[in-house]
């Protein structure tokens, strides 16, 4: 949804963007990919002829949608827990790397619809914008730049911008930037808008148009390939669409990873989620029909090897890239919130699965619902938010289900540990520090939840705690804010980003 003009780091290590299709659907069996061929498509020059907006890159103008391909698994900053520690999750983080100020890093956050930054280790808060129209801050990999989106004075749409983390003038990336995604290794920004997939080197200002956009985007890896969703219309209402990869620097031909052919709005319709953290797999949803109403209730989740192979169905999730699905650091497991239906507290449970579909499901036997899974950097546990669940016919009782959420840990053996317990608050969106020593999370007064969201003017705070749940303390006050939400799912990540949470 929200997720850019130009200045930032040299040392370009090319990166991959992945685009995903957003269509609608319900259950559908895994489909066998057809033979892979290069689809017919208009050239960049042809597509650029009528491009009216600014700025235009050398090849043309803004582009629409990217994900970054991870190709090298992240190196854990500390050793995985011993078997004895794993047996006692209550001791999971005790005595390990707790309290290292150097790991705290900096946060960028939204207060009063402006972008602010702060050193978590006792630093001063600094305001970077002053027009009260800004959202979704995102740090560059080197911590020098922040990309964000800006609302227009009137009307709809979001423009993309970049500003130095030290302050200064803001630079516009594109008039329409549906999403912004930094390379995980340098200051190259991928952005969508105007019908293309573009990259922007924030340090040099160099822009590249990689391909015509499919439908949307995101980032993650060492950045050598860009995955895109394509849709090609044939004769007699035939539509061919699927998932492809292309070199992020713009060279070479597009290579199809997965494709299907169907009639017009019929399916199956693949819709890309993102890359595994090691760059070997793509995750995507597949829907049987183009229907926004059906799509709102989720779709089957699949994974497929980038270098070829058949897709494998793992479960069913809502169609949100963040806060619902997360890949493990080494790409061997995936955690996701399983369950269809748009209400976020009805039949939603955490699943930690390998890539065959085998794994552990937290089946809500105690009437709870899980949300916002986040892998630890070591890949040993998942932090998540757990609260009261509801039956479909019992969604209007007070207190609101979201008011009961707390932060928990869980592992692939099904063991859990509760980290927060203050009933005054609702705790959401846990985020790990780079070494696994700390967890940052969103905290809201329990009484501020109303229906599917929070009351207008509710005070939102960021809290920090050691990864064993000890020493919780307030990190920043975001103030009165009403973030976007849908049937109880709130995009808390539009309000902050943590440099040090990598």
Main traits of this protein?
mainly beta, four-stranded antiparallel sheet, 3 helices, globular
Concise structural overview:
The chain is mainly β and 502 residues long. Helix content is 3%, strand content 41%.
Can you walk through the features of this model?
The chain is globular. Helix content is 3%, strand content 41%. The strands form 11 sheets. Strands 4-3-2-37 form a 4-stranded antiparallel β-sheet, with no helix packed on it. It has a 4-stranded antiparallel β-sheet with strand order 5-6-7-8, with no helix packed on it. The chain is built from 3 helices and 37 strands. By secondary structure, it is mostly beta strands.
List the helices and strands and how they pair.
Blueprint: E1 17-18, H1 44-48, H2 83-87, E2 106-111, E3 114-119, E4 125-127, E5 134-139, E6 145-150, E7 159-164, E8 171-174, E9 180-182, E10 188-193, E11 196-201, E12 207-212, E13 218-219, E14 225-233, E15 238-247, E16 255-263, E17 266-275, E18 281-289, H3 292-295, E19 299-305, E20 312-317, E21 325-327, E22 333-338, E23 349-354, E24 359-361, E25 368-375, E26 382-388, E27 406-410, E28 416-418, E29 425-432, E30 438-445, E31 449-450, E32 453-454, E33 459-466, E34 473-480, E35 485-486, E36 489-490, E37 496-499
Antiparallel strand pairs: 1-13, 2-3, 2-37, 3-4, 5-6, 6-7, 7-8, 9-10, 10-11, 11-12, 14-15, 15-16, 17-18, 18-19, 19-20, 21-22, 22-23, 23-24, 25-26, 26-27, 27-28, 29-30, 30-33, 31-32, 33-34, 35-36
